[in-house]
Design brief:
Blueprint lengths: L1 E6 L5 E6 L22 E4 L6 E4 L35 E5 L11 E6 L13 H18 L7 E8 L11 E7 L4 H17 L4 H12 L3 E4 L3 E4 L8 E7 L11 H18 L12 E6 L20 E6 L1 E3 L2 E2 L4 H6 L8 H10 L4
Helix pairs in contact: 1-4
Length: 354
């Protein structure tokens, strides 16, 4: 992998990741951009104890542009985009309309390919491996920023999810705090460790799923994928490396090599859940990594106790119908799932590649 860092016209960082070492990335951003001005704030809710990003400048962000005005496609002639080069493998840049910025963290956009009409599932194993390298490198870089506590790599796919740019891309949020979801896992991890005399809750979850087997979706040499026992979403898969590690940086070479094959297969199965002729399945794909720094607020738990994993889920519950977060989910954070996890796992095994 070759990494090339440069700057856009308004000062934001742009990083190219290339499979070939002989690629030269020296195209300048020719747009007359003013310096980026953000008004992002992080405010803490005194009752719930969580944090909310207030980012009013995002109201003016690009919204469903036509394909020939896509800001994530390569620049071509007089059509100038966020990517000055005429082609690219993987490109990462600071979001022009960030939810988090400055002392409140950082937001980046990850362009998986220059092909506007592709999806992640269309990538080759080599291309998917390069995206993994980019995620890993960005995690390493962002974790060094003084304001950053946790790095979150994710992809929103599909208009139903709220995606406003059709080009295949994901995002990285570098939070200045430990996110509520991660804090919940860490508290459960700490409580279980104390109650069991030192056993790891993540290890026990994976052991249970492997032992029972009916929720296993994909069983590979270095990764295991399953629908969790208490899945929140109609079709939800958790993907774990078999060797527990706290973050992407700690994956060994064997797991890195096998990941593209496993992940691409999962994404392709998701597109086949609802049968032939159905539109692409909307999904969210989210990496869960341990926060950086000490975890003193979680008694007896270290970063090494956390288990890196990827969560992949869709809000589509059946053909033409979405799972909405209504009263119970949005008002009380109590999910009601219409699809039994065992049924979802069976369907995801049925649609395996031949």
């Amino acid at each position: 992998m070759k990494k090339t860092s440069t700057r856009l016209a308004d000062g934001r960082e742009l990083v190219y990741y290339d499979s070939r070492d002989d690629v030269v990335r020296d195209a300048a951003d020719r747009r007359p951009l003013d310096p980026t001005v953000t008004t992002s704030q992080v405010r803490r809710d005194p009752l719930l104890g969580d944090s909310v990003a207030i980012a009013s400048h995002r109201q003016g962000r690009t919204y469903h542009p036509p394909a020939d005005e896509c800001p994530l496609c390569p620049s071509e002639g007089d059509r100038l985009s966020e990517i000055p080069e005429s082609s690219y493998d993987v490109a990462v840049f600071e979001n022009r309309f960030p939810s988090l910025a400055g002392d409140s963290g950082r937001c980046e956009v990850v362009c998986f390919t220059s092909d506007h009409d592709a999806s992640f599932a269309d990538l080759s194993e080599e291309q998917a491996g390069l995206v993994l390298e980019a995620w890993t490198d960005r995690t390493a870089e962002l974790s060094q920023l003084p304001s950053v506590r946790q790095v979150f790599c994710f992809e929103n796919r599909g208009a139903e999810i709220g995606v406003t740019l059709g080009h295949p891309h994901g995002q990285i949020y570098a939070y200045p705090f430990t996110t509520p979801r991660t804090a919940l896992m860490l508290r459960s991890l700490a409580a279980h460790k104390e109650a069991s005399g030192g056993e790891n809750l993540f290890d026990e979850v994976i052991a249970r799923e492997t032992r029972e087997g009916d929720r296993i979706v994909l069983d590979a040499a270095h990764w295991v994928a399953f629908v969790p026992y208490a899945a929140h979403w109609p079709y939800e898969v958790h993907l774990y490396p078999r060797r527990r590690v706290p973050d992407l940086l700690a994956l060994d070479e064997a797991a890195r090599t096998e990941f593209p094959q496993v992940y691409l297969e999962l994404l392709r199965r998701f597109d086949r859940i609802f049968g032939e002729g159905e539109p692409p399945t909307p999904y969210i794909s989210a990496w869960h990594q341990a926060p950086f720094g000490a975890l003193e607020e979680f008694d007896g738990v270290s970063r090494e106790d956390f288990a890196l994993h990827l969560e992949l889920f869709t809000i589509r519950r059946t053909s033409g119908k979405l799972k909405f977060l209504a009263g119970s989910e949005s008002g009380m954070n109590v999910f009601i799932n219409d699809v039994p996890p065992e049924t979802a796992a069976e369907r995801l095994r049925e649609v395996a590649s031949s």
